[in-house]
Amino acid sequence: MSAPLVLDAAAVAAACPPADAVAAITAALDGGLDPAVDLPRQAVPLEAGQLLLMPSDGGGGLKHAGIKVATVAPGNPERGLPRVQGSYLLLDAATLGVVAVLDGIALTTLRTPAVSVAAVLRRLLAGPTPLRVAVLGSGPQAHGHVATLAGALAGHRELASVDQLVRDPARWSSVSGPGSRHARPAGSGPIDGARLVRLGTTESDDALRAADVVVCATSAREPLFDADLIAGTAVVVAVGSHEPDARELPAGLLGRATVVVEDRAAALREAGDVVLAIADGALRAEDLVPMRDVVTGAVRPDPARPLVFKSTGMSWEDLVVAEAVLAGGR
Questions:
Q1: Which domain holds residue 170?
Q2: Residue 10's CB: how many other CB atoms inside 10 A?
Q3: Residue 227: how many CB atoms within 10 A of its CB?
Q4: What CA–CA distance (Å, rounded) separates 228 from 309?
């Protein structure tokens, strides 16, 4: 048996551009993959954070199986290190032999925005005007979502502007400047071409009111803004948490939006934005729309209401994108 292919972060990025990852997610769902039958992830508490085990066989419909072993260390950003680290083992579905080992951070950074954009792409393609984007956060997912939006919409719709809303814009010059205490984590900081805006100011409120797309990619545990700041036709993506007691979005927004999730059971188990909105009486479990139904066109969300996609990350997504990476890497 030949040695497994080893793909580091650069190789993962080179093998599968963001638009290809979106296409892979879309094709898998169009082809019948059902997120509801995915294997649940296991979270193991550690002193410094969490160990996450994310296995999948794609419901038996893919050529491979796989598992991501990831760690979440909340204290790492202050050390200049990634909050999330890990590796992905891609296995032959029949023999379970290791086919490839992929950098887990790069795979996560690629697949998370690919899933988000695949979930809302029909809505975004329907509009004729350039998009105004507001991104809350400064980590790899903030960067990844902008790059994936631009890649997936290329030739169809441009990004008119990007406002990056952060708690302390001045922090980034001090983190990376001469004499700084810590190195800046890779893939974090200001987004190229974006306007940095301090969150919670009149300027950031105006940016949110004007935004066609709002991306929340933070470690916040409480809502980041008031519900009435979001336009009635806006698309909102929230990817920052996978815990039932943490949320980035206010319940009032979910109450007036079409809320799309990867899978109802997974969302009710892990998505604090959803769980807490239901507890607040703003949302019902039966209101949640599975992502597969939106991607395939079985459900067409009302264009006059906000469209919210809440992602917690599921194992099938890593597997689908890992297969796409393998095809490109070969």
A1: 114-313
A2: 10
A3: 17
A4: 17
Please state the φ and ψ torsions of residue 159, each to the nearest 5 degrees.
-90, 115
Task: Check: CB of residue 62 under 8 Å from CB of residue 319.
Answer: yes
Q: Select from 92, 89, 152, 164 the least CA-distant residue to 125.
A: 152
Q: pLDDT tens digits, residue range 229-264?
A: 999 999 999 999 888 999 999 999 999 999 999 999
Residues 129 and 224 in one domain: yes
CATH of the domain at 17: 3.30.1780.10
> Do 98 and 46 have their domain in common?
yes
**pLDDT tier at 186 (50, 70, 90 boundaries)?**
low
pLDDT tens figures, 43-93: 899 999 999 999 999 887 789 999 999 998 999 988 988 888 999 999 999
Which is it for strands 159-166 and 131-136: parallel, antiparallel or unpaired?
parallel
Question: In terms of DSSP bridges, do strands 258-261 and 235-238 run parallel, antiparallel, or are they unpaired?
Answer: unpaired
CATH of the domain at 233: 3.40.50.720
Residue 51 sits at the vertex; the CA angle it makes with 288 and 105, to the nearest 5 degrees, is: 80
Q: Total structural domains in the chain?
A: 2
